[in-house]
Amino acid sequence: MFDWLERQAPKLVLAPSFAAMLLFVYGFIGWTAWVSLTKSRLLPKYEIDGFGQYERLFNAPRWDVAIENLAIFGILFIGVSMALGLLLAILLDQRIRAEGALRTIYLYPMALSMIVTGTAWKWILNPGLGIEAMVKGWGFDTFTFGWLVDPDMAIYTVVIAGVWQASGFVMALFLAGLRSVDSEIIKAAQVDGIPTTRIYTAIIIPSMAPIFLSAFIVLAHLAIKSFDLVIALTGGGPGYATDLPATYMYAMAFSRGDLGQAASSAMIMMMIVFAVVVPYLYSELRTRK
Amino acid sequence: MARAVTTNRKVVSTVFGWAIAILIFFPILWTILTSFKTEAEAIASPPSFLVFDWTLENYSTVQERSDYFLHFMNSVILSLGSTVLGLLIAIPAAWSMAFVPAKRTKDVLMWMLSTKMLPPVGVLVPIYLIFRDIGLLDTRLGLVIVLTLINLPIIIWMLFTYFREIPGDILEAARMDGASLRDEIIHVLTPMAVPGIASTLLLNVILAWNEAFWTLNLTAANAAPLTAFIASYSSPEGLFYAKLSAASTMAIAPILILGWFSQKQLVRGLTFGAVK
Q1: Does the residue B107 lie in any domain?
Q2: pLDDT band at B165 (very low <50, low <70, confident <90, very high)
Q3: Where is the ABC transmembrane type-1 domain (chain B) (predicted)?
Q4: Assuming Cys at both sites, which of A55, A115, B43, B117 could form a disulfide with A221, CB separation 3.0 to 4.6 Å?
Q5: Nearest to A48 by CA among A58, A56, A60, A39
Q6: B residues 197-216 near A, CB within 8 Å?
């Protein structure tokens, strides 16, 4: 009996984690999928009704805004964070003093809750306080910076805060990548008199392709899940101008009493994540075998 | 990229690096400074930087009005509780995957990690309804359970990356000397695993401390930790920047301090083991 236990121990100790995730992920996603096919409003109903909720979702102007915002936010957030992260990594790679301290400071925004750091951002972006007041104080009386309250521009303030939060994280990933590039190759290139910029663009950056992919995946799924950022900065406003899918879902479930819409929007978000993550996982698993 | 850098360029890079650090740190610094201002000074235009009447008034007002300490304790209990519970479940799992890998261990691990990428909204509504029906809404116990479950994949992954670095030869040597499974775990594995467990603990405390999605959705007045409290603080009372900053400062201070004294673990943890 004890022998059997000892042989099975590795599997047995894995079982609770496995079961918890199985239930948590598939059980509850299954429930959400089911409800998204019903006429649930304030309370869940369980009679299947077809794809009516999805039809309503795709016809809802507010959902269009959320998806459009996700596109704007996603592209800018990923693009700018990666560009800045790479530049910061190259900067820190110059063997500068107190690199460890700098790296930690760059990473602090990622270690803190956006809900909390949002307090300062609301002040910085507030027209009449923050940046606008500061620049006006320097004598530029006509300067205005009211993106936070401008329905067309508010989503870009979310991008700014998001980039602030994530750049240091991307930097840390890229810095590790830069350090792992074979220094012999670089020395050889330097001996050959190849200029530094060319060494970066032709040798170092191409060899970091896998890290670019990982960073992209992490940022992409962060963008799709983004919730704190919007809640902290704009609460989805003005109106619903800065809604993202997650805040749309939140509004439907908790303030509109529309579970069916909440469930169907959650399913669409899930599909978007799958579309990004599954090809990546697939390629990861294939290359490892 | 190891190479010689001329002194001149080094100075320029250093200056530049610190300038950016100040820029990045500014919102955090500003929150801390504002927490010591009066409400009038907090919204003064142009803003005062260091020259103002420093006051601790905001801290006492926030405490009086909304029992801030309760929310602070909630944060502590939720992050420590979910971390300890998570570690209890995850340590055996990660141990098994690192030292007794099966054919599909890598796949299982990737699958576990991939679940962390799914948006939590996908499972929010059913959990909300279940919690409402069994009376776990707005309770610490309920949140500890949820936070444990959502961070479990990360905990297992982090522990796995640390455990993998423990040389397997040592275990074999212990086994050759006739050590039982129990001895192996207590006398050989545990001492070597402690640093990895400690770093994972740090990471998870930070993740749970910052968690806003679940805490905001599943709590009200009783079990709300700092994040949920701060998110709700601005709306009913209008924006009181100084008081809000006082509450925020108390929420970020533990992480700033903890992070500063364990920089290596912080970097490795936040990058999920990618940066050693």
Answers
A1: yes
A2: confident
A3: 72-262
A4: B117
A5: A39
A6: 206, 209-213, 216
